[in-house]
Amino acid sequence: MQRTAVPIIVRPRACPTLPGSFEVKVTVRGEHTGGVLGSIEETLQPGALITPHTHANDVWVYVLSGTVGVLVVIPREVGDTVTPRP
C-alpha cells in the first residue's frame, strides 16, 4: 500500500495581511468556521516582543522554526492588568 503525504495546514492561496510591526497573515477567519476556529500566521524577527494583550478564547501556538517565549498570567480579579518585565 502506497502512502500519500497530506499537508498539515491547508489555507487559501491569498491571505490578507494585517498592518503592524511584523507580518501577520489571516489564514482562517472565525466567520468561515461558525466562530469555532480562527488561524493566523505570524513571522517575527528574533527578540521581537508582542504588546501585552488578552484573548477571549483558547490560543494554540505552532512554531515552525526558532523558539518562542510566552508569559501567561491569570488575573486575580476582573480589571487586573499585566505589566511586562523589562
Describe this structure in a few short sentences.
By secondary structure, the chain is an all-beta fold. The protein is built from no helices and 3 strands.
Task: Explain how this protein is built.
- The structure is a single chain.
- This protein is mainly beta and 86 residues long.
- The protein is built from no helices and three strands.
- It has strands spanning 17-18, 23-28, 39-43.
- A three-stranded antiparallel sheet has the order 1-2-3, with no helix packed on it.
- A hairpin with a 4-residue loop joins strand 1 and strand 2.
- The protein is extended and about 55 Å long.
- The model has no long low-confidence stretch (mean pLDDT 75).
The percent range for helix content is under 10%
Number of helices: 0
Strand order of the largest sheet: 1-2-3
> Topology as H/E string?
EEE
Secondary-structure-derived class: mainly beta
Strands, helices and their partners?
Layout: E1 17-18, E2 23-28, E3 39-43
Antiparallel strand pairs: 1-2, 2-3
Core attributes:
extended, 3 strands, 86 residues
